[in-house]
Task: inverse folding
């Protein structure tokens, strides 16, 4: 059985919250539907922020998932620029920073993630940036225009995507990565080596095993100091050290959290009538035999659909083959599956041609594939992984 389906309140209006609203309306929910968002913007796409939006810097509404008229026509109400500092799940009320209190029958957390901060001196100086929201890019773009020397802390997706944009504009770019290879959290050594080489060939200075100890500057960032003692000058510093789940509100509200709000295969929390979806959640994947937290558009959309189905009383179990992508220069990386725990790595094709794939196996099963400039390999791998990872582990 689903919830009564009247008085649905969603905390968060990103990709997941927007998809939930659309799926509920498509599924026949005619009751009240309200999304609370601490940003002043309607739901928008986040992946382009560190890619095309940063490079071209168009009007923010170019990122909107739907125009304002769509939400009005579907009777979806928004509280924009309003944070929710408190939730009483027993009294079924949400308090907003503007003084309002909203009653709900069903509550959905779609609170996403925040950029991880670094415990180093100078991290709050002017001239230090991160990229998670439209307003981050609104501030970063003019600063980047005025900068020649850019230091990026972090060699993951966002760090390398911004490095590609900045270097393509002719700026001097240094990437500081604390690990022994770039993209280590999401891919294997062969793909890491390809991207390391690609960026170095374009003139990016990649420092592996580089530990940041301080950002220098009096009134604004002027450089960075490394654990080795070396100091690098900088006109702009971008911190791209990953993201943390926005689960603090859920935690203080009494929901189970483990670096993410814990949900079941129907996006239900341990409190009846309360759901969570998207980047902020952690759920058990039978496919991978462990709890996972996914930061991807795929997860935001598909888990939102699963939550909507459960709320509408038509539950459908959610256990995806996750997929991700990254655009750097003219090169597209498409990843299917999760590489954690892989036992063998096979390169298919020639990395020197900038069109190849890497297959990862565990106990003989295909669990993940990186496809570089090869959309066909990506699509085929998603089907193959789905078949070979079906029900690896029993439900817990």
Result:
């Amino acid at each position: 059985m689903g919830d009564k389906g009247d008085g649905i309140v969603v905390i968060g209006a990103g990709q997941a919250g927007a998809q939930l609203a659309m799926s509920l309306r498509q599924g026949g929910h005619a009751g009240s539907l309200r999304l609370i968002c601490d940003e002043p913007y309607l739901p928008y796409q986040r992946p382009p922020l560190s890619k095309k939006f940063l490079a071209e810097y168009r009007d923010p509404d170019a990122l909107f998932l739907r125009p304002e008229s769509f939400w009005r026509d579907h009777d979806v109400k928004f509280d924009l620029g309003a944070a929710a500092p408190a939730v009483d799940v027993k009294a079924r009320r949400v308090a907003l920073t503007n003084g309002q209190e909203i009653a709900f029958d069903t509550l959905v957390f779609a609170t996403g993630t925040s950029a991880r901060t670094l415990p180093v001196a100078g991290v709050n100086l002017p001239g230090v940036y991160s990229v998670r929201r439209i307003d981050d890019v609104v501030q970063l773009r003019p600063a980047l225009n005025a900068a020649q020397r850019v230091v990026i802390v972090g060699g993951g997706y966002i760090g390398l995507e911004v490095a590609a944009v900045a270097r393509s504009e002719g700026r001097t770019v240094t990437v500081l990565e604390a690990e022994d290879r770039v993209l280590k959290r999401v891919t294997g050594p062969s793909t890491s080596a390809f991207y390391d080489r690609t960026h170095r060939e374009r003139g990016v200075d990649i420092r592996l095993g580089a530990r940041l100890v301080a950002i220098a500057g009096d009134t604004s960032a002027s450089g960075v100091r490394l654990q080795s003692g070396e100091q690098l000058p900088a006109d702009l510093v971008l911190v791209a050290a990953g993201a943390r789940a926005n689960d603090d509100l859920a935690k203080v509200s009494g929901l189970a959290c483990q670096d993410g709000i814990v949900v079941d295969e129907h996006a239900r929390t341990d409190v009846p009538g309360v759901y969570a979806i998207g980047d902020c959640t952690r759920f058990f994947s039978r496919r991978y035999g462990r709890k996972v937290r996914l930061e991807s558009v795929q997860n935001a959309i598909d888990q939102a659909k699963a939550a909507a189905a459960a709320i509408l009383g038509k539950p459908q179990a959610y256990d995806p083959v996750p997929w991700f992508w990254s655009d750097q220069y003219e090169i597209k990386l498409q990843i299917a599956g999760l590489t954690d725990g892989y036992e063998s790595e096979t390169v298919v094709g020639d990395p020197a041609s900038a069109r190849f794939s890497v297959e990862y196996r565990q106990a003989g099963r295909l669990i993940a594939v990186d496809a570089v400039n090869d959309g066909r390999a990506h699509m085929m791998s998603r089907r193959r992984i789905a078949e070979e990872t079906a029900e690896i582990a029993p439900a817990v």
